[in-house]
Amino acid sequence: MSTALSSQPRVVIIGAGFAGLAVAKALGDQPVQVTVLDRTNHHLFQPLLYQVATAGLSPANIAQPVRGILRQYKNIEVLMAEVSGSGKEARARGRAKRAV
Ligand SMILES: Cc1cc2nc3c(=O)[nH]c(=O)nc-3n(C[C@H](O)[C@H](O)[C@H](O)COP(=O)(O)OP(=O)(O)OC[C@H]3O[C@@H](n4cnc5c(N)ncnc54)[C@H](O)[C@@H]3O)c2cc1C
């Protein structure tokens, strides 16, 4: 996928939880570039965490690689990264500083 050179709009999704994956799948194969960022490389099926805690399932049973889940969509790239802030927040902080 050559996201850097594409003129299509880019959508950045932070987090590959239920919400992030639902949005990513809805945008799959649409005329947009999608970047999914998550601080882990896997999607965790939280409702079954108790099964792991009680040794009913192994951790691998409730964690799936994000890249594997979204592999079929050519317009989606998945990156492992921890987001510490957004451009919007930084711009707002910059405006507040200038106003002082
Ligand atoms: C033990 C347990 C049992 C549950 N059982 C049920 C149930 O039975 N039924 C039900 O409807 N709901 C249940 N829930 C709630 C359900 O799991 C959550 O509502 C749902 O996971 C929320 O989805 P989400 O996409 O908003 O966030 P999450 O699924 O929490 O996903 C957030 C993602 O964002 C990533 N992320 C977070 N911060 C950053 C960052 N700064 N940078 C990069 N990545 C980041 C995380 O790694 C994660 O992958 C349960 C939750 C728990 C903990």
What is the overall pLDDT average? 91
Number of helices: 4
CATH superfamily: FAD/NAD(P)-binding domain
Element pattern in H and E: EHEEHEHEH
Largest sheet: 3 strands, parallel
- Give unreliable regions as ranges: none
Distance between the termini: 44 Å
Main structural class = alpha/beta
CATH topology name:
FAD/NAD(P)-binding domain
By DSSP, the count of extended strands is 5
Key words describing this protein structure:
two-stranded antiparallel ribbon, 22% strand, 3-stranded parallel β-sheet, 100 residues, flat, 5 strands, alpha/beta, binds flavin-adenine dinucleotide, 33% helix, 4 helices, single chain, FAD/NAD(P)-binding domain
Task: Summarize this entry quickly.
With 100 residues, the protein is an alpha/beta fold. It has four helices and five strands.
Q: Can you give a write-up of this model?
A:
The chain is of the alpha/beta class. 33% of the residues lie in helices and 22% in strands. It has helices at 18-27, 49-53, 66-70, 87-99; strands at residues 10-14, 33-38, 42-44, 63-65, 76-80. Strands 1-2-5 form a three-stranded parallel beta sheet. A two-stranded antiparallel sheet has the order 3-4. The termini are far apart. The model has no long low-confidence stretch (mean pLDDT 91). The protein binds flavin-adenine dinucleotide (FAD).
Give the SSE map.
Layout: E1 10-14, H1 18-27, E2 33-38, E3 42-44, H2 49-53, E4 63-65, H3 66-70, E5 76-80, H4 87-99
Parallel strand pairs: 1-2, 2-5
Antiparallel strand pairs: 3-4
This protein binds flavin-adenine dinucleotide (FAD).
